[in-house]
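This section describes the prediction task in plain terms. A model, or a person checking by hand, is given the sequence of a single protein chain and must write out its three-dimensional structure as a string of tokens. No templates, partner chains or ligands are provided. The sample shown here is typical of the held-out split.
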Amino acid sequence: MNVRELDRRALALAGAAVAAVTPDQLSLPTPCADWTLRGLLRHLVSQNEGFAAAARGEGRSLRVWRDGRLSDDPRTAFAASAALVTDAFAVPDVLDAPFALPEIDERRPFPGRQAIAFHCLDAVVHAWDVAVTVGAAWEPDDELLAAALRVAERVPGEGRGPGAAFDTGVPADGLPLGARLLALLGRSPSWPR
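The expected answer:
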């Protein structure tokens, strides 16, 4: 599995959802508790910028993970941040480089390959959050879903809940691949019902 290629596909999936956003939708609630669509888009931009900084060895400060700017055009902001992180992940030795990921564990770095897998998961799931909020399609391929599910199955329970990127999981047994992924990370596949 080429984690960088999977991450590019996850970013394209998220980019397609973000492209469907209109300015009048930015105040809508999302499946992420306590986040409006504007807050979720800011999180996506911030994560892209934070992971890019981590790939460069500059990810220790929480500020680089939270300073994403949307300006007046969230689509352009997302596209710029996606290009930034894609370029950072393309560096030849990045898969083995140590990534500081203080939002996950500030005591130790993660190998680049694992960090990129975390980023991929975040992009896939938040692409659904954006898509379901604005009524857009969310159609990841099975390979991307399976890769994201493998990472999601290892996400610890601590640090989840309202205001966090991932909520407490809901029952997932017997669900199709995409719905199982969403449920493991606290999303109801039938949101907002």
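For orientation: The chain has a mean pLDDT of 91.
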